[in-house]
Design brief:
The complex is a heterodimer of chains A (about 675) and B (about 325).
Chain A: E1 4-9, H1 13-16, H2 21-28, E2 34-40, H3 46-59, E3 63-68, H4 71-84, E4 92-96, H5 98-102, H6 108-126, E5 136-138, E6 143-146, H7 150-161, E7 166-169, E8 184-185, E9 190-191, H8 192-205, E10 209-212, E11 215-223, E12 226-233, H9 248-252, E13 258-259, E14 268-269, E15 272-273, E16 285-286, H10 292-296, H11 301-305, E17 318-324, E18 326-329, E19 333-335, E20 352-354, H12 355-361, E21 383-390, H13 409-423, E22 428-433, H14 443-452, E23 457-460, E24 463-469, E25 472-479, E26 484-490, E27 492-497, E28 499-501, H15 505-512, E29 539-541, H16 551-569, E30 573-575, E31 581-583, H17 593-597, E32 603-611, E33 617-625, H18 635-639, E34 645-647, H19 652-663
Parallel strand pairs in A: 1-2, 1-3, 3-4, 6-7, 6-18, 7-10, 18-29, 20-27, 21-22, 21-27, 22-23
Antiparallel strand pairs in A: 5-30, 8-9, 11-12, 12-17, 13-14, 15-16, 19-28, 24-25, 25-26, 31-34, 32-33
Chain B: H1 6-18, E1 24-29, E2 38-42, H2 45-51, H3 65-72, E3 77-81, H4 83-94, E4 103-107, H5 116-123, E5 127-133, E6 136-141, E7 148-151, H6 158-161, E8 173-174, H7 188-195, H8 198-209, H9 217-221, H10 251-261, H11 270-274, H12 282-296, H13 321-331
Parallel strand pairs in B: 1-3, 3-4, 4-8
Antiparallel strand pairs in B: 1-2, 5-6, 6-7
The chains are: A alpha/beta (about 675), B alpha/beta (about 325).
């Protein structure tokens, strides 16, 4: 029989406000196995932990139940306390009476009743706990960064700087991401290319960094410290190590009418192309859907003009297998599609554009060489209307758009408006907004400059409808402060489209078994205290894949993710989780159900000889679990028909005891 | 009325024993009553000629017996498999429950087997003997002088009325013609249950399952129930040998069993065949099969060896759990 001590935490008023902690500790005193029960204001504080240690000594406790916050918060804390008091750390159980009780109840009576029930369940479980000892596993000292935008670049540079090899997988032919498409950056207005391209070059020249461009992650197995990743290197039909990036092939290619993705389709590229001048790697890529040679074997001009002999029409997709200790997700974002926003006439008029398209129109390397010209007729626009929150901050029940704030639009719209007024003072610039949100260093000053020094007309209200009429865009909007309807004849309308996570993130999350929120942003291990770690061990988050972010925030998060990776890779061995599955060979049928549901490939089978009760020998196929690979998810214990699979620390008998205690 | 005869099967068995292909035969033996056919191992021609039977009561699915018998028998074992038995045969192979190399499977056609409960509803209790007379059964009872003539078609077991397949999905050799997978109406009864209100459905199952005497026959006959140690026999499971607190508590046994065999049940119908209380246990399993078909696409357990049942498989097209929940809500 265990000697259990119960420690009920007030968590200040967090718990004590809705739960009668005195009543809880009193009620749990009479539970089976309980020899000591008390309550205290902050159990996690030094004084609280000392109280636990003293009680262990004084009452010879063999098990501890802490009724407090979520085990995700302080289970590790109390396990350390138990270890310091000479107990096995896995003899501690947490009853979550904060998140699952006091925070969701308003009434003291119901809150207290539920807290007592949760405490009883934890006591029933700890009575069946056994001491557990974790194993160790080695760490592969190499990191994988998925996505080669500014987030991925910064993370890779920082990890490489600490001396660990890093691979970047980028699905586009070049790294650089969205930042490479931007013109100037707020709030300092330095040019994006000037600050990004040197970093891209650093990546290319860093001996510790390998770039897999035009590649995707196709399979991920394993676990923290020991991921086995298969990278699919798409055929670009150009030998990467031979191509010099001279561009002769691009000049000669006869296929000229392919929409240029880099300029968002506002001009054309060739079938063989280098996305932009500073691309890294600076290697041509053949678009197999556009190339005549690949489609019907006629042409071959690029191969003829390539003096390096880099063109290879027979190149096949290549699969590379590599081991990694840590994986950083930096898959970034995209503006949402404007197809559902008919009211802004995006699909009807070429002169209704998104902000990212505006960015390309003002970029010196863009389709208009940096001159702000209307896409429809190439004329200089004199009246421009910027519309904010297009698809951001929508109703939860709305059929289109996102509920969240895209965060970066207020600032880039202020930037666009300011730069337009600066370069073309003869242009009227209107910005329609719901709120202007500019928290950030020097951000509000920046926005006020746009209004006060550059005379941008900020109007609180939304644009209701844009109607193309001749060569003007009739903008119908409301001014909420003046309380009147406005009618503006605009030459150009710029939509600040909401941003959403890249579509590749969802299947990647499935491969990583990393969790996502309903908007497909990756979730953090803790929103405040572990913002760059995924709840899946060994998986880290960098940049907009975790939530909308501007460049300064992305770069600081990228550095934070890198430091977490470095901390992991610096270790030679990782202490495992002892809560792993094990199979009772006497009960195992060898049916393979567990093997089929195991996401980690931790289960193998072998034929073993068994002595039967009638003294014969029987050879049976039985499962065994590799404890270094098992992550303790418990899928096998559910799939096992005979109950031969069980989980240390979460045994079927323990779960049943908890359920019984709750239902009693 | 079966198309093949006892003599044909004995001839085949004797030949295979003689040329050394097999060392023993798993077949049907005469039981205490004519309708009470029992599985047995035959080692030679004499045993076969003395006790081997084949008639309209040979419903036993032999697949499950292979798990134990292949471990005991030296050399290969000859087994006669009706089409529906072959699905269980494959399912057990998928689960690695016996060694395929130790079995010689002879597929035999099946015209549907008789249900003695239905026979008794016609002729009453006290069956003394049954003679197989062409299309009919000549049933002599203790209480009537003349035998009662019953057409076999009138007393077909439910699983045979709703036969899902006359095709053998596994065999080494076939006797007679190969059949086809049949479009059966086997889910009609499940649909009737689904159409009920929750209260009606509860009443239906309460009426059926409160008759259960927990004889464990359904589990013992079920080819999916081959666990080395059944949870209901495991002293550590907390449910072993528990006496019911009320007449409806055995529902838990049946619900747990239905969950255990979900995705692995081939719908062979042995559970309902062996139930001494005539509880339509197959309906529980069929509800699971129907749901899985609708949620994850058509799946027939045992149709092929090594197939992954939807419940132990994952594809990105799988239904989100919320959808299942919503549907449950709709049904309620």
């Amino acid at each position: 029989m265990q000697r259990v001590g119960v420690f009920v935490c007030w968590c200040g008023s967090n718990i004590a406000g809705t739960v009668d902690v005195e009543a809880v500790s009193e009620a749990l005193k009479s539970e089976p196995g309980v020899v000591f029960s008390t309550n205290y204001q902050y159990m996690c504080s030094q004084a609280g932990q000392d109280m636990i240690k003293e009680a262990v000594k004084e009452h010879n406790l063999t098990g501890i139940v802490v009724c407090s916050c979520s085990p995700r918060m302080h289970e590790a804390t109390f396990r350390k306390t138990a270890a310091a008091a000479g107990l096995n750390p896995y003899m501690v159980e947490i009853a979550n009476i904060r998140e699952q009780c006091s925070w969701v109840h308003k009434d003291m009576l119901t809150g207290t009743e539920k807290a007592i029930i949760l405490g009883k369940a934890a006591i029933a479980k700890v009575n069946l706990n056994t001491p557990l000892t974790p194993g160790e596993s080695p760490v592969t000292k190499r990191a994988l960064v998925i996505g080669g935008g500014i987030a991925g670049i910064q993370t890779a540079l920082d990890i490489a700087d600490a001396g660990f090899p890093v691979d970047i997988v980028e699905k586009k032919p070049t790294i650089g991401g969205k930042m490479a498409q931007l013109d100037k950056t707020f709030p300092t207005l330095d040019c994006a290319a000037c600050i990004l391209t040197p970093k891209m070059v650093d990546v290319a020249q860093n001996e510790k960094i390998r770039i897999f461009s035009y590649s995707e992650v196709s399979e991920i197995k394993g676990f923290v410290g020991n991921f086995d990743v298969t990278i699919k290197k798409n055929a670009r039909f150009v030998k990467e190590d031979v191509c010099t990036g001279c561009g002769a092939c691009v000049d000669k290619c006869p296929m000229k009418k392919i929409p240029n993705e880099f300029n968002l389709g506002m001009d054309n590229r060739k079938a063989i192309y280098i996305p932009f001048a500073q691309a890294v790697p600076k290697v041509a890529t053949i678009d197999p859907n556009a190339c005549n040679m690949l489609k019907n074997g006629k042409c071959g001009l690029c191969a003829k003009v390539c003096t390096a002999g880099a063109i290879d029409y027979t190149q096949k997709d290549e699969y590379i297998e590599e081991k990694y200790g840590a994986i950083v997700v930096a898959t970034g974002f995209n503006p949402i599609s404007m197809d559902k926003f008919d009211e802004f006439a995006y699909n009807q008029s070429k002169d209704v554009i998104t902000s990212l398209e505006f960015e390309r129109l003002t970029n010196a390397a863009g389709p208009t060489a940096g001159k702000l010209l209307r896409p429809s007729d190439g004329k200089h626009p004199h009246t421009i209307v910027f519309v904010q929150c297009v698809g951001s901050r929508c109703d939860a029940c709305a059929e289109k758009g996102k509920e969240y704030c895209s965060k970066i639009c207020c600032m880039y719209t202020a930037k666009h408006a300011m730069l337009t007024r600066d370069k073309y003072p003869d242009t009227e610039v209107y910005v329609f907004y719901i709120d202007v949100r500019t928290p950030g260093k020097n951000f509000d000053e920046f926005y006020r400059r746009a209004v006060e020094e550059y005379g941008v007309k900020y109007i609180k209200g939304m644009v209701g409808k844009v109607t193309p009429e001749g060569d003007v865009l009739k903008v119908q909007a409301s001014d909420l402060i003046a309380n009147k309807q406005l009618h503006i004849d605009a030459d150009l309308v710029v939509l600040a489209a909401a941003i959403e996570p890249d579509k590749s993130a969802r299947p990647l999350a499935t491969m990583l078994t990393a969790s996502m929120d309903t908007n497909d942003f990756f979730t953090e291990a803790h929103p405040k205290l572990r913002p760059v770690e995924s709840p899946t061990a060994g998986v880290f988050l960098s940049g907009a894949c975790q939530g909308p972010k501007d460049i300064p925030e992305t770069v600081s998060q990228a550095g934070a993710a890198a430091s977490k990776v470095i901390g992991l890779l610096a270790k030679d061995k990782l202490t495992g989780n002892p809560c792993v599955a094990h199979s009772n060979e006497l009960m195992c049928n060898g049916c393979s159900s567990c093997e089929r549901v195991c996401p980690y490939g931790a289960i193998t089978y072998s034929d073993k000889e068994f002595r039967m009760p009638d003294r014969t020998t029987k050879i049976r196929r039985v499962a065994s679990v590799n404890p270094a690979v098992c992550q303790g998810c418990g899928a096998c214990t559910v799939a096992c028909p005979s109950g031969a699979m069980d989980l240390n620390g979460f045994a079927n008998s323990q779960i049943m005891a908890e359920v019984d205690a709750i239902c009693k | 009325m079966q198309k093949i005869t006892r003599e044909q099967l004995i001839e085949k068995a004797v030949a295979l024993l003689a040329d050394g292909t097999v060392s023993c035969v798993l077949g049907w033996s005469k039981g205490e009553f004519d309708y009470d056919v029992t599985p047995a191992i035959f080692n030679n021609e004499e045993e076969l000629k003395a006790n081997f039977v084949f008639n309209d009561f040979c419903g036993v699915n032999f697949s499950k017996y292979l798990v134990a018998k292949t471990q005991k028998c030296e050399g290969k074992i000859l087994v006669f498999l009706k089409p529906c038995d072959t699905y269980s045969f494959n399912q057990l192979l998928t689960e690695h429950r016996f060694d395929r190399e130790k079995v010689y499977a002879v597929g035999i056609p099946c015209e549907g087997m008789a249900d003695v409960a239905k026979v008794k509803t016609i002729c009453g209790d006290g069956i003394a003997s049954i003679n197989f007379d062409g299309e009919n059964l000549a049933v002599t009872t203790l209480y009537e002088d003349a035998p009662v003539m019953i057409s076999t078609n009138d007393v077909l077991a439910e699983r045979c009325v709703n036969c899902k397949s006359k095709k053998h999905v596994a065999y080494d050799e076939l006797i007679g013609d190969e059949g086809e997978v049949i479009e059966s109406n086997r889910f009609d009864e499940v649909e009737k249950l689904e159409a009920m209100t929750p209260d009606e459905r509860f009443a239906f199952w309460q009426n059926e399952l409160s008759r259960c005497i927990r004889c464990n026959a359904c589990r013992d006959a079920c080819p999916a129930c081959t666990c080395e140690k059944c949870v209901f026999d495991n002293p550590n499971s907390g449910v072993e040998n528990k006496s019911p607190a009320n007449s409806f508590e055995e529902k838990m046994f049946h619900i747990i069993r239905a969950f255990h065999v979900a995705g692995r049940c081939t719908d062979c119908g042995e559970c309902s065949r062996v139930c001494p209380q005539n509880i339509p246990l197959h309906l529980l399993n069929r509800k699971f099969i129907k749901d899985m078909n609708e949620f994850y696409g058509e799946y027939q357990a045992g149709a092929e060896v090594g197939s992954r049942a939807p419940l132990v498989d994952y594809t990105t097209e799988d239904l989100e759990p919320g959808e299942v929940f919503n549907r449950g809500d709709m049904n309620a």
